[in-house]
Amino acid sequence: MNFNNTLIIAVDFDGTIVEDAYPKVGKPILFAFETLKKLQEDGHRLILWTYRSGNKLNEAISFCEDNGIHFYAVNKSFSEEEYSEDISRKINADLFIDDRNIGGFPGWGEVYQMLTNSAPPIPENKKGFWGLFK
Question: How far apart (Å, rounded) are the C-alpha atoms in residues 91 and 76?
Answer without folding.
Answer: 6
